[in-house]
Amino acid sequence: MIYVIGIGNRFRGDDGAGLAVARALREMALPGVTVLEQDGDAAALLEILRTGEPLILIDAVCSGAAAGTLLRLDITDSPLPASLRSGGSTHALGVAEALGLSRALGFPPARRVIYGIEGADYSYTDSLSPSVRSAVEKAAEAIREELIQITS
């Protein structure tokens, strides 16, 4: 089984990008893939990381790139880059901390990939900015292709 987890807050504008990608992937009903939506809570993420199953995370990022830029990072053997650990995150203790803690606790190694979508607007709204909405479609397709390669 492969876990795909969209992370975010749908009421904080572009922070809902990961959730939107997860919804799009769930509609594709890919065999051997479990798609979840989470708010980035470290404890919930640790439960999945403990399984040792392959994992793809999707979240909004603030790296300084243009809004809607899609990033793909394989963090199977390395930590999340410091430039993506803080800044625009609305998660107090979240993805980076859960990943780091899973390594420190010796959880089984597994394929771990993060797709990040550069956000522009994190205000209190339930809609994505146009560039992020477009990136959601691209991210869903890129992840679908990666999942097909992994599961075949």
In the CATH hierarchy, what is the superfamily? Answer: HybD-like
CATH topology: Rossmann fold
Instruction: Sketch the major β-sheet.
Output: 5 strands, mixed
User: Order of strands side by side in the largest beta sheet?
Assistant: 2-1-3-5-4
Low-pLDDT regions: 85-91
Sheet-strand content, in percent, reads 15-25%
Ends distance: 12 Å
Which oligomeric state applies? single chain
Secondary-structure element sequence?
EHEHEEHEH
CATH architecture: 3-Layer(aba) Sandwich
Number of discrete helical segments: 4
Q: Report helical residue fraction.
A: 25-40%
CATH class: Alpha Beta
For the record, the count of structural domains works out to 1
The tally of beta strands, per DSSP, is 5
Q: Indicate the structural class.
A: alpha/beta
What integer is the average pLDDT? 89
Rg from alpha-carbon coordinates: 14 Å
Overall spatial form: globular
